[in-house]
Amino acid sequence: MDAFMGEEVTPTYVRKVRPTNRRQASNLISWIKTGNLFYKKGYWLTAQHMFSVCERYLGKLPVVSETSSGLGRNSFLPDLTIERWSKSLHRPEVRAWVAEPVYRTDTLDGYGALQKSLLRLTRSHSDPISDEENLQRSARYGSVTLKSRWITPY
């Protein structure tokens, strides 16, 4: 953090170029998150411009909290976008874009398969033997795609 006389003066940087289509998921994610940072600092017109660029490709962005897994606008107001009530999960939900990794086929055997299985054992409580895709695929580094999902707005 940068500070001057006890006040935060950290600048907000636009790190990705302007997105030109929906397939540029990392640029869209960056612009939405940067727009939320500009909004929190009081640069509402800049934030509105960044949101409008992203809404051309994704449609209207919902208002979600900062802790939500979906992409959307943050607000100082407690009014979140709620589109439906999930009867099975007993919670409000909103349709939003969620970032998901892109997977590639990557068959492992030998020491690589052993290492991946042992790492999976230490990270989760699930049984790695029951997951048939564990040694058949892996996430591509730096590649992400956007999927429309029903999520909780908070």
List keywords for this structure.
154 residues; alpha+beta; two-stranded antiparallel sheet; 3 helices; globular
Summary of the model, kept short:
This protein has 154 residues and is an alpha+beta fold. The chain has three helices and five strands; from the N terminus they run E-E-H-H-E-E-H-E. Helix content is 29%, strand content 24%.
Secondary structure layout plus pairing:
Elements: E1 3-4, E2 7-8, H1 25-40, H2 44-58, E3 84-86, E4 91-105, H3 111-123, E5 137-151
Antiparallel strand pairs: 1-2, 3-4, 4-5
Low-confidence stretches: none
Largest sheet: 3 strands, antiparallel
N-to-C series of helices and strands: EEHHEEHE
Helix proportion: 25-40%
Query: Oligomerization state of this entry?
Result: single chain
SS elements, strand count: 5
What form results from the Cα inertia axes? Answer: globular
Determine the strand fraction and express it as a percent band. Answer: 15-25%
Q: Going across the biggest sheet, name each strand in turn.
A: 3-4-5
Q: If helices are DSSP runs of H or I spanning 4 or more residues, what is the number of helices? A: 3
Which structural class best describes the helix and strand composition? alpha+beta
Query: Kindly state the mean pLDDT as a whole number?
Result: 89
Task: Kindly report how far apart the N and C termini lie.
Answer: 26 Å
What Rg do the Cα atoms give? 20 Å
Structural notes for this entry:
The structure is a single chain. By secondary structure, the chain is α+β, with helices and mostly antiparallel strands. It has a domain at 1-61. The chain is built from three helices and five strands; from the N terminus they run ββααββαβ. The strands form two sheets. The chain has a three-stranded antiparallel β-sheet. It has a two-stranded antiparallel ribbon with strand order 1-2. α1 (25-40) packs antiparallel against α2 (44-58). The longest helix is centred in the N-terminal third of the chain and has 16 residues, at 25-40. The radius of gyration is 20 Å and the shape is globular. It starts with a strand and ends with a strand. The model has no long low-confidence stretch (mean pLDDT 89).
